# Entry
Amino acid sequence: MRPNSQALKHRSSPDTEREFGGTLGAICIPIFLPLTVLFLICVSQCPDASVLQWPPPLPSTDQLWDHLAPVLLLGWIALHALLYLMPLGKVSEGLALRDGTRLKYPINGFHGLCISGGLLMLLLGLGAPLGHLFELLLPLAVCAIAVSFLFSIYLYIRSFWAPSHALALGGNTGNPLYDFFIGRELNPRIGKFDLKYFCELRPGLIGWVVINLGMLVKEAELRGSPSLAMILVNSFQLLYVADALWNEEAVLTTMDIVHDGFGFMLVFGDLAWVPFTYGLQAVFLVVHPQALTALKAAAIIALNGLGYYIFRKSNSQKNQFRRDPTHPSVARLETIATATGKRLLVSGWWGLVRHPNYLGDLLMALAWSLPCGFSHLLPYFYVIYFTVLLIHREDRDERQCRAKYGVAWDTYCRRVPYRIFPYIY
Ligand code: NDP
# Structure
């Protein structure tokens, strides 16, 4: 038995360690972030597109509500729930839970992307007005925010029927506001349907590329054809989403699935924040066309390619090492032992910095903004936000690794002193 998991297993009192600013964060974030989503969409659709304009643009009730929006949103979620249940792809086991059992997960997210993409192409061919998503963006975001709140309330209430070993260790503080925000239950399921795993990569992530496609169609309607900048933004972000779903199994070992409870933080992130803020560049380009020379486009493609290469190679190397450390592709890498029996890589990508995958992700994020030129700050929202998110996430992960691996983690930090950016941070 590993010493750390032994300690966790016997910890029965409510966990009092708070993240994201504790109770204050749990009150402010669910108010502030939904307003930010609506604000950013409004600004990106404005001719000024200035995040600093005062007073900020206020949408009318007509702009915020459309009867079609809840139908589309709930229909989209239902379609993906159906695709999740289809007997496609393999079934994988997650990591061992605290009671020693392992949950099973269908690895069919990529099928979901292809099938829903095919259906969308069919609808486009039949003349469906996909460009209307531009006008529907605010009402859809309002519905996604409402669904996030209602769904989180459901998750919070049902968590009181879950056995104590099924609760996330950090989500059981006894403070209702904080627990609602951070999530009490680790893997809430209805039968075999895993609610957290379903939301993590499907309706929101695939919804994001559908919104992007809607913006491309809108631009083509307005100007005759999509611009090179719009094509680049769509292609880069489609590659990112397709990659995540192609490697869906890897999500089973992430902090979100293994450590975090399923509460407002993840629900809102998956269903509202990702689809409505990650693709703001495409929304911006509909109103603010950008001319891009072939040379600039080539440089941006090269940057995205470099970021993707670092991101994919480093993630694959760690996943391969964790699945089978004797595999020829990782067997010769230098490692250090830890008291848990697991080893840590200190050469290869994980010898360059302690989070090479974050470095690659951030280079890609920059490449997604550059097609929008330098006239506005708004298209850079994602890369700025993502830098803050990954620095915070890296810090959370370091704390968890230090608790898990003790002195071995300190040795790793001495051997690989930089966290994300070589020689900088
Ligand atoms: P990581 O893939 O970075 O995994 C961190 C874990 O890896 C650690 O907890 C530890 O777990 C293991 N590990 C750390 N260092 C080593 C080492 N030297 N050798 C072996 N194992 C090590 O986790 P994330 O979930 O944060 O990121 C996954 C990907 O998702 C990243 O590419 C990230 O950029 C991306 N991401 C994207 C987001 C988005 O919104 N677009 C949001 C969050 C992440 P253990 O030892 O227990 O295996």
User: Anything to note?
Assistant: The pocket of NDP is lined by residues 254-255, 311, 315, 318, 321-322, 342, 344-345, 350, 355, 357-358, 361, 393, 397, 400-401, 412 (CB under 6 Å). Residues 294-323 form the longest helix (30 residues). The two ends are 36 Å apart (CA to CA). Residues 1-14 have pLDDT under 50 and may be disordered.
